[in-house]
Amino acid sequence: MGSLAAFLLLLLLVGNFQLSLAAPRPRAPSIQHPPRTPFRLLVANASAVNASPNTPRVNVLVAEPAGAPTVSSPKQNVFAALTTAEAASVVQFLHQDANINLTATANAGPWDNSIASVQTVYPNKALSIDYLDGSGVVPPRYARVSVNVQATEEPYVEHYLVGPLPISNSSTAVPYTSISSQNTSRIRMYTSDFDATSSYAMGQAELISDIIQDLLGAPGANFDWWGTEPLPDSTGRVTQWLEAWAPPSGPFDAQTILPTGLQLKTDITGRDPSKWSFGGWWFNNLFYPSHDAFRSAWNSSGFARPPRMNASDTAWYGTDRVGEQLPFDTIPPPRSVQPKSQRFAVNKEQNYVEWGPFSFFLSFTRDTGFRLFDIRFGTSDDSEKKRIIYELGLDEAVAHYAGIDPVQSSTAYLDSMYGFGSMTLGALPDYDCPRRVFSYATFLDATYHANEVSTTHTNAICLFEADTGYLMQRHSSDTGLSATKNIAFTVRSVSTIGNCESLIDTFDYVFYLDGSIETVVRASGYIQTAAWATTGSESYGYNIHSGLSGSMHDHVLTFKCDVDILGTANSFLKHTLVPAQVTYPWSTEARSTMQLQKETVANEDQGKLNWPDNGSGMFVVANVEKPNAFGESPGFLIKPSRGGAGKYLTVQNSSNLKEAGHFTSNHLFVAQRKDTEPFASHSDNVNDPGNPIVNFNDFFNSESLEQQDLVLWFNLGMSHVPHQGDLPNTVMTTAQSGVVITPHNYLSNDASRRTNQMTRLTFSADTGIVSDVASFGAVALTGSLNLAALQPNLTSYAPDTNVRKFPFNPADATRIRA
Ligand SMILES: [Cu+2]
């Protein structure tokens, strides 16, 4: 789906948010019956939300805890999201430019130009570092703006760089080409005529309404028709495949597991509907190039009818509890509590966080959700707190399907188009995150700006400490025992990723006292399925229900990690355990053993890497010019931490992703870090994957990786061949993936030795009687807890808040103007 359609969809999502949180929505332009609420009602909806006394703006469940530590930010957050006032002023500035010829988004039709999104531009790294490290001034702030240019026969998305902010006489809006490896600021879009193409497809379905009634049990208008993006093929024609999906029953938004297997091809080249054409029907692994061909097959005696799933029977797809009760299961399960005050501090003005030996800033955008910046680690007794990661965040998520049918085979989602920020959901206390009672978790709101509306996700990010449930350290002998708790600090957000799949992903950045930082993604939700054909489906997944294929697919989520070890000049070490035959001076014959083979990745030609087979190797970002006391290079090691041995896309040179998916080819990439290469992907690449604005392959052009400013991109993900256990929803136990970065010859010892949360016992080897318990200064547990206060009242879960920014009201940029 292109930008406009995507944003209309987002508006619909926002407008309906109170009714259907996290509701899955078709990814591609859909034909909805009954039609969705017109998006222009958003303003009224938003006003109602703001005005309603029944809709609390502050979630009382997560009210600020008493006694939470505060901290002043050492520096201004130069990565901060645009404020609503900044975004509004940018919108107004562009509206004043007659050349851009904008229509207010709320009034824009398919032949109008309108603003799609306004986001912060992260400042140049050199300027940021000069400021953060003490010698420079605050870098100027800029916005990047996506504009849907549709008042033309060949619509496109244009990107502008606007600033400096605040808007002044020196501010300009220029095409934003500098981040494009293709030196372009625009990309074609083929979704401007969303309504007309939908009507056209419905018209074709009407022509075989008797067949649809017979095969699917209801007229075509009873189904939602959605499928692939309209995209140009190699001949230059623009085609789209749509499938009829059954409406789910009850409260369960389960449409992605209710495919009918009836698919329609249209040729919608150009903007003149009179020149569009019907391309064929697909049903039960057979293609019919004309209505007549389909009709004649349907009339024939041998016409095969595969089994159909039952969309009206919620028993197989409802998410409510079913079946016999488990033993003791009505009793409340264990909860985490914070016995005293929080042990971390958040400056909410600057989104600055300190926990243990770590500190960092948070930022948030529509396209990529929240990111961490200037992650510092260390304590003064060994190493001063120093920057170890300049930037860490998600760039793109791909879900690549395969199947015998055209829709599944043509589907590869690039989810930044939907926006990880726009699809972020408020965390559900006591479920997504621990509650704030007893000073436990802290929740942060997050705001993004799209379609001239600023939307605030309430409680979008939660920060909390938790006992990992296993020790950091333990050693015992016959006279003593030492043990250290493993307390970790988590920054978590929740997003819907993949509108069609409607998976809910949680993104965690987990900090450990030993200096490790783990990035973890977990997924749950309704899968996207395919109809099970009489023959052929067995090669693309499992038959998981009557008439239903689990539709195999890969998830690959691409994260950027800009590591800086003792400065920006670093090298990438590849230390591999290799089998060896060695004859030693003391051995009489060659011995079969192993050795450590030490290599440095010299340049970007070698920068596309996969995790070492069998875990027999180490990838380390190190500063080889600053050896430690023993001559080793201080660094941080990176490796998979959970979910298997890493993930890249099984499909190579995808026919769907074309030039827009090269970041999926390997587990890990190392390149020279550049301000002109801020993201591996681009949220508008999906409009025309053959001609992307950002082509990741262009980042790899033989440049040196030795003592340079290096950036890593690593992939998390999973192969997903859904089985019956994915019904009704995929479970997070196995649908998770993680990568950890951890100190490697960086400190002189294990950093976790600094925690007070440890003990050492001394006891008699003979009697076992404990003679001494060392507690190392940890405060003892005292007092009591009001457990009833832990009981959540989830009715005060707070929905998004929407603020329209245009027409602009200079007197109050934060308010909706009637
Ligand atoms: Cu999946």
TrEMBL record:
<protein>
    <recommendedName>
        <fullName>Amine oxidase</fullName>
        <ecNumber>1.4.3.-</ecNumber>
    </recommendedName>
</protein>
<dbReference type="InterPro" id="IPR015328">
    <property type="entry name" value="DUF1965"/>
</dbReference>
<keyword id="KW-0186">Copper</keyword>
<dbReference type="GO" id="GO:0008131">
    <property type="term" value="F:primary methylamine oxidase activity"/>
</dbReference>
<feature type="domain" description="DUF1965">
    <location>
        <begin position="255"/>
        <end position="324"/>
    </location>
</feature>
<keyword id="KW-0732">Signal</keyword>
<feature type="domain" description="Copper amine oxidase catalytic">
    <location>
        <begin position="335"/>
        <end position="752"/>
    </location>
</feature>
<keyword id="KW-0479">Metal-binding</keyword>
<dbReference type="Pfam" id="PF09248">
    <property type="entry name" value="DUF1965"/>
</dbReference>
<dbReference type="InterPro" id="IPR000269">
    <property type="entry name" value="Cu_amine_oxidase"/>
</dbReference>
<dbReference type="GO" id="GO:0009308">
    <property type="term" value="P:amine metabolic process"/>
</dbReference>
<dbReference type="InterPro" id="IPR016182">
    <property type="entry name" value="Cu_amine_oxidase_N-reg"/>
</dbReference>
<feature type="signal peptide">
    <location>
        <begin position="1"/>
        <end position="22"/>
    </location>
</feature>
<dbReference type="Pfam" id="PF01179">
    <property type="entry name" value="Cu_amine_oxid"/>
</dbReference>
<dbReference type="GO" id="GO:0005886">
    <property type="term" value="C:plasma membrane"/>
</dbReference>
<comment type="similarity">
    <text>Belongs to the copper/topaquinone oxidase family.</text>
</comment>
<dbReference type="GO" id="GO:0005507">
    <property type="term" value="F:copper ion binding"/>
</dbReference>
<dbReference type="GO" id="GO:0048038">
    <property type="term" value="F:quinone binding"/>
</dbReference>
<dbReference type="InterPro" id="IPR015798">
    <property type="entry name" value="Cu_amine_oxidase_C"/>
</dbReference>
<keyword id="KW-0560">Oxidoreductase</keyword>
<dbReference type="InterPro" id="IPR036460">
    <property type="entry name" value="Cu_amine_oxidase_C_sf"/>
</dbReference>
<keyword id="KW-0801">TPQ</keyword>
